[in-house]
Specification:
By secondary structure, the chain is of the alpha+beta class. It has one domain. The strands form 3 sheets. A 3-stranded antiparallel sheet has the order 3-4-5. Keywords: Signal.
Length: 223
């Protein structure tokens, strides 16, 4: 977007009024840069609201269950996905602003906006990569019957909205909870959160339970 320097009327305004106009112009110039960090934080593949409704309607509805106890090691994660980059490093580079990496693809500088709570971090150590659908939730929604290769694909998928760069505190708060049990504290993210959750389950044919589906429907109604 092209920004033009504000033109003041030729009628006398006084020095204080001119300063106020100039300040407003500077604020307008600053806002696109701030917005770009936020926009960069969204992963790819979030469907439209209409598509998300269709995808949600197509998911099996059943109570969560597991054929054997969950173990995180059953989902090999942070595998190499491109060049020297593992899935975690790839998402940090993909969803940050001005990210610089070393020869091993480790982020050494940049800025990251956490969609869940609105926190902006300049240190990659403050950012964690969240599995939109937690691995334990996936296990209890159908992944317990998958092959190891399919679980590996799910845990390292960087092509859809399955992995999010968020603040460590929000990721820890979420844990393995579904949308009926936990939502991001930043309400502006709820629409994208619901659509990404639905799409993640749709891509891998995972089931939803009644409370989870009801929460997702309510979130879509607010989109």
């Amino acid at each position: 977007m092209t920004h033009r320097t504000p033109r003041f009327p030729r009628t006398p305004l006084g020095r204080s009024a001119a300063v106020l106009f100039a300040a407003a112009g500077l604020a307008a110039l600053a806002s696109p840069a701030e917005a770009s960090v936020e926009a960069a934080s969204l992963p790819p593949g979030i469907p439209s609201t209409a598509d998300a409704r269709t995808q949600l309607a197509g998911l099996d509805v059943r109570e969560e269950s597991e054929s054997s106890p969950y173990d995180r090691s059953l989902f090999p994660h942070w595998n190499t996905v491109e060049g020297a980059c593992n899935a975690r490093e790839y998402v940090l580079r993909r969803d940050g602003e001005g990210v610089q990496v070393d020869d091993e693809c480790r982020a050494v500088a940049g800025s990251w906006f956490s969609e869940f709570d609105g926190v902006t971090a300049d240190d990659p150590a403050d950012i964690q990569i969240d599995h939109m659908v937690p691995l334990k939730e996936a296990w209890r929604s159908g992944a317990d019957s998958w092959s190891s290769a399919k679980r590996t694909s799910f845990a390292n998928n960087v092509e859809g909205p399955l992995l999010w760069a968020v603040s460590g505190s929000s990721n820890q708060s979420k844990g393995d909870k579904d949308p009926a049990e936990w939502l991001p504290p930043r309400t502006e993210s709820h629409c994208d959160y619901a659509k990404a959750w639905i799409n993640s389950k749709h891509r891998y044919d995972l089931a939803v339970d009644d409370a989870e589906k009801g929460a997702l429907e309510g979130m879509l109604n607010g989109c």
